[in-house]
# Entry
Amino acid sequence: MSDLGRVLVLAGGLSYEREVSLRSGRRVCEELRTTGVEVEMRDADADLVPYVLADPPDAVFVTLHGVSGEDGAIREVLELLDVPYVGAGPDACRVAFDKPTAKAVVRGVGLSTPESITLPKETFHDLGAAAVLSRIVARLGLPLFVKPSRGGSALGASVVRTAEELPAAMVGCFAYGDTALIEQYVDGVEVAVSVIDLGDGPKALPPVEIVPDGGAYDYAARYTAGRTEFFAPARLSPEAAAACAEMAVTAHQALGLRDISRTDLIVDSAGQPRFLEVNVAPGMTETSLLPMAVEAAGHNLAGLCLGLLESAIRRLN
# Structure
């Protein structure tokens, strides 16, 4: 049994990832209850601030994904409410959530990341889509990977293998965000490396290898059981696995993150990892990558959640 006190799990929100967030929140609640913690799950809505002010929880576990959950906004409010919470602070979230900015930061500390171009929707239209896209292909080559500059769960993301596919990919991307990140597609092993810090410094968990049955790790492949095969730990050489762990920890530190993060990488044919993006509120569902990494490390998710909450409380006190 735990003497942690009462925990509030935030889940839901109004982003495109609402359903995934609710599943993550329910999983965290279930895990914490096995340790004897009193836990309640609430949405991030107009009732949240009055509720917290009337009866402040001992700590908050944020499982909100997408905008507001990962862009620093909800964490800014939690700072105003003076309640301890798990995860990065507002400023770090703002930097990490914007993929082009995060790529620039990690490139600045020497990490390898695919060359890319960031294109707002207004520029795409105002300067003439055909002319701009033609220059993108000339600069970056093919294939390409197109995704919204902010957001997750592969919504609006697609691989572009021919120049003719690029306009449709851009339109699909702009359905989920106003700015597109177009980057060189690197063929290789897709892995995710979770980083945990319980107060004694960030440590990488074993990398998880992702092998979707349809070739693309899209929304359905991420959250439909059986659509993707996972290997935890990843089938990498010891040298490549160590390089992935080092890259994830370096990205975590360079971006000013804390407690928990997940870095997505591609390991090329030479065994060299390339940074793709980082997630400040990793999913906790039954098909999410962080719980798989926790199990591969020989730990249990309940104990990890408990430790993260205790660390957050120590930080505020």
User: Anything to note?
Assistant: The mean pLDDT is 92. The two ends are 22 Å apart (CA to CA). The domain at 6-87 is CATH 3.40.50.20 (Rossmann fold). The first strand starts at residue 6 and ends at 10.
